[in-house]
Design brief:
The complex is a heterodimer of chains A (about 230) and B (about 180). Chain A is of the alpha+beta class. In chain A, about 35% of the residues lie in helices and about 20% in strands. In chain A, helix 4 runs antiparallel to helix 5. The chains are: A alpha+beta (about 230), B mainly alpha (about 180). At the A-B interface, helix 1, helix 2, helix 3 and helix 4 of A face helix 2, helix 5, helix 7, helix 8 and helix 9 of B.
Chain lengths: ~230, ~180
């Protein structure tokens, strides 16, 4: 139970973040680092260092807050896209489902399914850096695949890991999004691929048993007719 | 911003999806409106237009890579938006008093409230200095709008511990503000 009312807390939050866009000082972190903090991409030690800086620096607080708003915008959009891709083709019923799901994302009740980001708009998980021993890499046979048997495969993680896979076309429109895969591979249903595209982009997010979340780079697979 | 109004050389960039950029522009505008002071929020459309133009030029020079995720675009837009807002802020500081008054009349319905908020913000920061760092971090995240479970995740600690740090830190903050005669 807090002692301040919701109005008081809102006033304090507004006052704390009231926009100050003066130039940053010499000890201020760069914009990239502030973005990564707002996105929840820093490890706890680095995050604490940045937040301590924010506690005394109104300039960086403005930059951080703008980043958070932009990330929320993007998560909301991506969530809507994934839902539209998952539920739907045509018909009012499926559109209603997609709208309801998008609304749920905005309300933060756990249906946030970011296209390339995370599982919830208000609860970004701790991400590990790409490039360490846990980096997700595609297996070589996924560079070029037959259109009729498009199988994505990537380096496996420890048992118990679950994988989310998002596939887009060259315009980054979501073709398919699947979650909680137990195996580090996925065979795309043939009817998921429009005939007009010659390549797909895909990204894997691994949810490890210890709670860590690792995302791959955006990977490209070329589609060929015939056996590949 | 209507993407059709973009310069010809930018529109022809093969690596850029125009619909995606128009959508990006809309979202930049929305974020600027929500996170900037009124005089800047009123210029959100203009800021978003300049951001988009600069962003398209940057992406055009990167064209061969063709690996722009939507979050990558937003991240790039953030950097450009911060530069654009700071530039406008500096320009505002250099304008004459007459223009400042006009801007305030046009965009800030209650400049006294804005001034009071800034003053309270400054006092909050002053009080935070006196709070032990472990609580200060939790309170700062709380003031930045993070709910307790998010505070816990960000700091890598159990929720109960985060809740305790927020609770005790906010109590310290209230006491400090009250000692200054402030009650938000």
């Amino acid at each position: 139970m807090r002692n301040e009312t919701a109005d008081q807390l809102a006033r304090m939050r507004q006052a704390f973040s009231s926009g100050n866009w003066d130039s940053p000082g010499e000890d201020c972190p760069d914009t990239e680092t502030l973005w990564r903090s707002a996105a929840g991409e820093l490890d706890p030690i680095a995050e604490e260092e940045i937040v301590l800086h924010l506690s005394r620096c109104p300039q960086c607080t403005s930059t951080w807050r703008l980043a958070r708003e932009m990330i929320r915008e993007e998560q909301s959009r991506a969530g809507s896209q994934v839902m539209a891709g998952s539920f739907g083709r045509k018909g009012a019923a499926s559109r209603r489902w997609a709208l309801a799901a998008a609304a749920a994302v905005v309300l933060g009740v756990g249906l946030g399914a970011g296209l390339f980001f995370d599982r919830g708009p208000s609860s970004p998980p701790i991400y590990r850096e790409q490039g360490d021993e846990h980096a997700i890499a595609p297996l070589p046979e996924t560079k070029v695949v037959p259109r009729t048997a498009c199988r994505f495969r990537w380096t496996p993680f420890p048992e118990g890991t679950r994988y989310d896979l998002t596939v887009t076309d060259e315009r980054l429109d979501v073709l398919l999004s699947v979650k909680d895969l137990e195996e580090p591979e996925y065979l795309l249903p043939p009817n998921a691929l429009p005939e007009t595209i010659s390549a797909v982009y895909w990204r894997v997010t691994a949810h490890l048993p210890d709670g860590a979340v690792i995302s791959s780079e955006t990977l490209r697979t070329r589609l060929v007719d015939g056996p590949g | 911003m209507a993407v059709g109004n973009l310069p010809q050389e930018v529109r022809h960039s093969q690596a850029i999806d125009e619909e995606a950029m128009a959508e990006l522009s809309r979202r930049v505008r929305a974020a600027v409106r929500r996170s900037c002071p009124p005089f800047l929020a009123a210029q959100a459309d203009d800021i978003a237009q300049n951001v988009l133009l600069q962003l398209l030029k940057i992406l055009k020079s990167d064209e061969g890579k063709r690996s722009f995720s939507s979050m990558y675009l937003m991240k790039a837009a953030h950097g450009v938006t911060v530069d654009e807002i700071r530039r406008r802020n500096r320009r505002k500081e250099q304008t004459g008093m007459e223009e400042k008054i006009l801007e305030q009349e046009l965009s800030a319905p209650n400049p006294e409230e804005e001034t009071a908020a800034r003053s309270l913000g400054s006092e909050i920061r002053d009080c935070l200095k006196g709070i032990v760092p472990s609580r200060r971090v939790a309170v700062t995240l709380h003031l930045l709008g993070c709910p307790v479970p998010e505070v816990a995740r960000r700091l890598g600690c159990p929720e109960k511990s985060a809740d305790n740090r927020v609770y005790r830190g906010m109590k310290n903050l209230r006491e400090c503000l009250e000692s200054k005669g402030l009650r938000p």
